[in-house]
Amino acid sequence: MKKTLYIGAVAVAMSLSMSSCNDWLDEDAPGTTRFDDFYISGAVAIQNVNACYTPLAWEFNGCYFPEWYIGDIASDDALKGGQNLADGGDVYDIDNFKVNANNPILLNFYRAKYQGIARCNLALQEVVKMEPDDEMNESRKACLLAEAYFLRAYYYFQLVRVFGGVPLVDFVIDSSDKWVQPRATAEAVYEHIISDLLEAEKSLWNKSEYAAADLGRATKGAAQAMLCKVYLFMKDYDNAYTWGKKFVDTQYKGGQYSLCSDFGDNFTLAGENGPESVFEIQYMEEPTSDYGDGFGFTRGTFSTILSRPRLPSMGGNAGWGFGHPTQNLFDEFEAGDPRRDLTIGLPDAAEVGIAEVDYLGNSYYNRKISYWEHGAFPSLAHATRSPFNNRQLRASDALLLFAEAALESGKSITDAKWALEEVRSRARNMASGSVLPAFPGYRGYKDTTDDLRKAIRHERRVELAGEGHRWYDIVRWGIGPEIFNMSTGYPATETAEVRAEMGNFIPGQSEIYPIPAEEINLNPMEQNPGY
């Protein structure tokens, strides 16, 4: 989907009904566009659904707001970074549990997701009424609608994990009367997500059914893996196991997905939408210089320049240094695990200690999202227009979700161990020597349910580090108070400078973020506790 066409918003005007014997009095005003006049071909339907994907890629609108600012930096996996302590004050607040309802990162994140939801609602309202044609047969039409259902579910999943319950809007808002919507509970949002994913799974195509130019679209496998994941967030382990097993049996073992033999191949430009990719946010290189215009002004990603280190030796390829992996994450990797050095970069000794390279005594950088491959940082046509896709869901992630569901549901310890071993064996085969033994032969684990749970959680952390998952795992597992304990948790493993900036994790408050104050002003609703 790298060269997809996108459409803008469809202009909508409300027709005035007037009683008269003159037909011209009932005609639309000049410039009025009716939906029926626009939705006249399969090509338009495809463009409309393409547009539903676009807000996934948005990372800037007055401030930067990539999801990994929360998924990584809020967690024990990464520090804010940047040029200095003052650089990026709003992400500093996220890093240190000092967020308030006026944080612009949260506001723009919230608004981008609702833009995506609105586009999905429009597609679901209009495409369903269209007749098939040469460009959209019945199967393609059903799949397009399924893609819109999947994407609406995905946007709501992104919202509910950050804010808890949010307004549920599954219709086109085409008048001011529909603007104010009540806030739904988190449980209701999750149920809506499940409903949309179930509907999507029925008609989505398998990955192999798409043409090469359409790789990156939502697939049946993506819906199945997401159903497993969402049910885990709901702590419905039986259904999580059902859908995880369906993904494994029909998609993974069925040949739709496989693990790359080299873990690092997942994070190269050539490896985009590869055998391990279940769902990626698509980007393309765009060298135009229209920096600073906000939502939708670029098809490239900011994450590359944001996360690249500020190394003097990199010259024009240097970045802005956000998202420093923590010492705690570095130490989580087992000795000899090849994934560590493919995930965490460390400058040469001559550059360690340079003020803009270090952040609070930490010099590490994230190699996964900074577009580092084969030992180098490829040049960018424009600093803020990187073509590097965002890997949202990989097959190894889906396998570890299945392992967790198999364990927590009590359905199959055998399945849990098998899925864990699938992921570990790939990393083991990349290494030289006897490293990364099968469970339980490492980290002092015994062959017990409790230690298998620890092993799966450890594996999720090292396998998916730097990909924006860790914070959400901590929250759904309910281990925030343990992880962020100042004396015995992750803060104790970092530098004194890092600890001096940290606020306290407050159980019952810190797990979710405040609804943006501007949104409450526009649509009055109850704020989250403590904000």
What does the radius of gyration come to?
24 Å
The largest sheet has its strands arranged as 1-3
> How far do the termini sit from each other?
40 Å
CATH architecture of one domain: Alpha Horseshoe
CATH topology of one domain: Serine Threonine Protein Phosphatase 5, Tetratricopeptide repeat
What coarse outline follows from CA principal-axis ratios? globular
Q: How are helices and strands ordered from N to C? A: HHHEHHHHHHEHEHHEEEHHHHHHH
Q: Structural class, please?
A: mainly alpha
Descriptive report:
By secondary structure, this protein is mainly alpha-helical. Among the domains are: about 1-15 and about 30-55 and about 105-185 and about 200-205, Serine Threonine Protein Phosphatase 5, Tetratricopeptide repeat, CATH 1.25.40; about 215-280 and about 390-475, Serine Threonine Protein Phosphatase 5, Tetratricopeptide repeat, CATH 1.25.40.390; about 305-325 and about 340-390, no CATH class. The protein has 19 helices and six strands. The protein has a two-stranded antiparallel sheet. The chain has a two-stranded antiparallel sheet with strand order 2-6. It is globular, with a radius of gyration of 24 Å. Mean pLDDT is about 90; it is low at about 1-25.
